[in-house]
Design goal:
Order of helices and strands: HH
Number of strands: 0
Length: 81
């Protein structure tokens, strides 16, 4: 996070003052921001969602094995064909 902020801060003056470097500066700044957001927000959220899905699936499998699982009326046996 600190690296992204300092890099963007260092590139910002050149981006705003010199028209020749503006496109490259904007690309660098917004690219760093998107990479930071992906790393700090999107990846952990996706990991959490997949991990919860894995746990629910294992629980369903365990309950089926013990004959405790009764599918809802909306469920059609698990997979859609």
């Amino acid at each position: 996070m600190a690296t992204t902020i300092t890099t963007a801060g260092g590139i910002l003056p050149i981006t705003l003052k010199q028209k020749f470097f503006a496109p490259m500066g904007y690309a660098l700044i917004f690219g760093l921001m998107m990479a930071t957001i992906l790393t700090l927000v999107v990846v952990p959220v996706m990991y959490t969602m997949l991990e919860e899905r894995k746990i629910k699936k294992a629980e369903r499998k365990r309950m089926k094995k013990n004959k405790l699982y009764k599918p809802d009326k909306d469920e059609k046996g698990g997979r859609c064909h």
